[in-house]
């Protein structure tokens, strides 16, 4: 899986933000949110997409029993609410800020359609991005349903390596500098933070990973 979510090496924020276009910049502004503020709720009208200028946003939904299911945690340069482009009228999930300095650029469907009509390459990139995201969500749900916690964690490390990793020439390790806290990771793989801590320490003892607060290293190839 790649990106939760960057589109290959392309920052969609830079491509789509109306602030980049003189015709739209004048009447456009960023919306700021504190931690736990909602950007939208389930069943809200799906008439905009959103670009993250800074901060972090979690995307999820609630089960009939009231349990919270997190689908993604997104960071600077990523987009969400993209189903609006496909003609979906109502939100099927919520979006909530999990940072005290989150800044969001909302883009109306009409504005986005104009940008897409004016530039075919933008249309291609957006639709390809949506396809990649759908595939990633399907894979994540399969892991949650059918794999144990250790396997889910190792798969997630593979994701991080694809998205944020590079090969260290001196040691041969894959070094990963990513934006997620341990709480974020636990949420994304569907486990508790204490369980995550136990698993990470076990993997460290087995010389599969090493880690600090700001860096993760893959010492062995994860199958």
Poorly predicted sequence stretches spanning 5 or more consecutive residues: 1-10
Separation, N- and C-terminal Cα atoms: 14 Å
Helix segment tally? 7
DSSP E strands, number: 12
Mean pLDDT over the residues: 82
Specify the structural class.
alpha+beta
Radius of gyration: 18 Å
Widest sheet, order of strands: 1-8-3-6
Largest sheet: 4 strands, antiparallel
| Beta-strand percentage range | 15-25%
| Portion in helices | 25-40%
CA-based shape: globular
Order of helices and strands: HHEEEEEEEEHHHEEHHEE
Describe the fold and architecture.
- The protein has 7 helices and 12 strands.
- The protein has 223 residues and is an alpha+beta fold.
- Helix 3 packs across helix 4 (120-146) and helix 6 (182-189) packs across helix 7 (193-205).
- The longest helix has 27 residues, at 120-146.
- It is globular.
What distinguishing features does this structure have?
single chain; globular
Give the topology:
Blueprint: H1 12-16, H2 22-25, E1 31-33, E2 38-40, E3 48-54, E4 57-62, E5 68-74, E6 79-80, E7 94-97, E8 102-108, H3 109-118, H4 120-146, H5 149-164, E9 165-167, E10 174-176, H6 182-189, H7 193-205, E11 209-211, E12 216-218
Antiparallel strand pairs: 1-8, 2-7, 3-6, 3-8, 4-5, 4-7, 9-10, 10-12, 11-12
């Amino acid at each position: 899986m790649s990106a939760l979510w960057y589109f290959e090496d392309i920052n969609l924020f830079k491509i789509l933000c109306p602030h980049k276009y003189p015709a739209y910049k004048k009447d456009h502004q960023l919306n700021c949110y504190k931690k736990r503020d909602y950007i939208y709720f389930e069943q809200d009208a799906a008439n905009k997409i959103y670009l993250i200028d800074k901060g972090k946003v979690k995307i999820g939904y609630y089960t009939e029993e009231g349990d919270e299911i997190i689908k993604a945690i997104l960071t600077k340069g990523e987009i969400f609410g993209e189903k609006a482009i496909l003609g979906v009228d109502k939100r099927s999930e919520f979006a909530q800020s999990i940072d005290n300095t989150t800044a969001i650029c909302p883009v109306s469907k009409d504005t986005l359609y104009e940008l897409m009509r004016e530039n075919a390459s933008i249309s291609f990139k957006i639709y390809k991005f949506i396809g990649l995201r759908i595939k990633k969500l399907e894979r994540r749900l399969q892991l949650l349903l059918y794999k144990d916690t250790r396997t889910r964690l190792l798969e997630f490390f593979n994701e991080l390596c694809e998205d944020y990793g590079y090969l260290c020439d001196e040691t041969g390790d894959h070094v990963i500098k990513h934006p997620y806290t341990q709480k974020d990771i636990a949420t994304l793989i569907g486990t508790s933070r204490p369980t995550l801590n136990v698993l990470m320490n076990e993997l460290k003892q087995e010389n599969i990973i090493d880690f600090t607060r700001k860096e993760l290293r893959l010492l062995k190839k994860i199958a």
